[in-house]
Amino acid sequence: MPRIFTCMLACTLFLSGCDTALEKSDYVGGFVTKNGGCAKKGKTSVNYKNKKIEVRFFCFLKECANMSGDMQAAGYFHLKGQGASYIKGRVFNNEAKGEWFLNIKNENCSGHWAALKS
Q1: Residue 19's domain spans which residues?
Q2: Number of domains into which the chain is organized
Q3: φ, ψ dihedrals at 56, nearest 5°
Q4: Tally of CB atoms within 10 A around 61
Q5: What does residue 9 show for φ and ψ, rounded to 5 degrees?
Q6: Strand 27-35 to strand 107-117: parallel, antiparallel, or no bridges (unpaired)?
Q7: Are the beta carbons of 28 and 43 closer than 8 angstroms?
Q8: Are the CB atoms for 105 and 39 separated by under 8 Å?
Q9: How far is 118 from 104, CA to CA, in rounded Å?
């Protein structure tokens, strides 16, 4: 019986890791893959402070992409990664949304993302 309890506790702590990162984000939402063999959907977190932005994608409870950079005028941003990878969008008062093209686990994929202020 103690072994079952320990296993259940360990699983709960493991699965809550992604949610903890998302709870501390300014905006929380999700992404959808339109093209490519990546995860068809996942979670997105956006942190924004002092005209700096960080966008994180979570696939299967694990961070699978992360980009950060400067915000442009009127809440627009275009973050560039290695090769042709990018995450772009706009931050509004209560929501943020945009598009992305990333290489995740050697798969080129693209889609849309959206998040609400948390």
Answers
A1: 2-117
A2: 1
A3: -125, 135
A4: 13
A5: -65, -45
A6: antiparallel
A7: yes
A8: no
A9: 26
- Give the tokens for residue 87: 């995450």
Question: Taking residues 93-108, what's their average pLDDT?
Answer: 95
Tokens standing for residue 70: 């400067």
Distance CA 41, CA 7 (A): 28
Reported as a single tens digit per residue, the pLDDT across 62-89 is: 999 999 999 999 999 999 998 999 999 9
**What is the three-state SS of the chain?**
CHHHHHHHHHHHHHHHHHHHHHHCCCEEEEEEEEECCCCCEEEEEEEEECCEEEEEEEECCEEEEEEEEECCHHHEEEEECCCCCEEEEEECCCEEEEEEEEEECCEEEEEEEEEEEC
**Domain harbouring 87, CATH code:** 2.40.160
